Amino acid sequence: MTVAAFTTILMVISSLTSLFTEGIKNITEVKAPNVVAIIVSLVLSVLVGISYPIIYNVNIDTQYIVLMVWECILASLCSMVSYDKVIQTLKMLGVK
Predict the structure, then answer these.
(1) What's the rounded Cα separation, in Å, for the pair 95 and 76?
(2) pTM of the full predicted structure?
């Protein structure tokens, strides 16, 4: 897996996590949105980790497994910088 593929997958997982987390927060009353974001990002990371080698005929070796573990960790961290925080930052920049 190349660096470009790794970062693209990370971007897609993080974007989808933000969208799914916002949807879940709008549908239900969530007391811990960061926990929901982490769970959603882990589920999406596992789904992508399973589907990527099937679609692109990538061999699953030690390097791929290590990259997918890092993908899960980084996607969880990226998901905690959620939609609410981005909107709050944009509003703060707009006020000044």
Answers:
(1) 30
(2) 0.77
